[in-house]
Amino acid sequence: MNRLRWPQKLAIGLGAVLVLWGIAGFFVTGFAGFAAESDTWVLGLRVNPLQNVIHLVFGAALLASFPRLKALSGTALLVALLFLVMFGLGLARYDGEVVNFLNVNPGSNALHFLAGFASLAAAQGAAWCRQCDRAAVVKPA
Question: 67 burial class (0-12, 13-18, 19+ CB within 10 angstroms)?
Fold first, then answer.
C-alpha cells in the first residue's frame, strides 16, 4: 500500500468520527421519530435517526473512497456539498419558526459546518495530490 497522503488521512479521521457518531446516535434514539424534533442528545449535540443515518452514510462513503485519490476527490466533494446543505437547513426559518427536521442545535450545526469544510479540504487536497503525481511523471521526449 502506498504512503497515505494528508487528504486520505483526513478522510479516514473524519469518516471514522462520523461513523462512530452515527452509531452512538442510534444507541440514544433507536429508530423512533425518524425525522422528528426530539430531546435526544449525544455529547451536547441533538440527534435523531435521520441525522444518524446521514452521518453513517457520509462517514462510510469517505472511508470507502480514501484508498484512491480520484475517488476521494469526488466523494469528499459530494459529502462537503451535502454537509453544507445540512448546515443551511439547520439555519432555515419558515414564518419565524425553525424548520428542524434534522433536530439540530447550534452545536450540531457547527459540526455540519466544520465537517463540510473538512470534506472540502480533503477533496481539494486529493485533487492537488493527483495533479502533483501527474506532474512528477514527466516522460522524457
Answer: middle
